[in-house]
Amino acid sequence: MNPLLISVLSFATFMAASLVGLWLGRALPETQLTDRNRDLVKEARRMLVALASLTLGLIIASASTSFEQRNTEVEASAAKIIALDAALSKYGPQAHESREMLRGIVLRGVERIEIAAHDGFNTEKTRRGIGVNKLQLKLLELAPQNERESWLRANALTLTNELGAFRWLKYAGSDGSIQWPFLAILIFWLCGVFASYGVVAPHNAMSVATLTIVALSMAMAIHLTLDLDTPNRGLIQMSSAPLQMALAQIGPVAP
Question: What is the DSSP string of 101-137?
Answer without folding.
Answer: HHHHHHHHHHHHHHHHHHH-S-SHHHHS--SHHHHHH
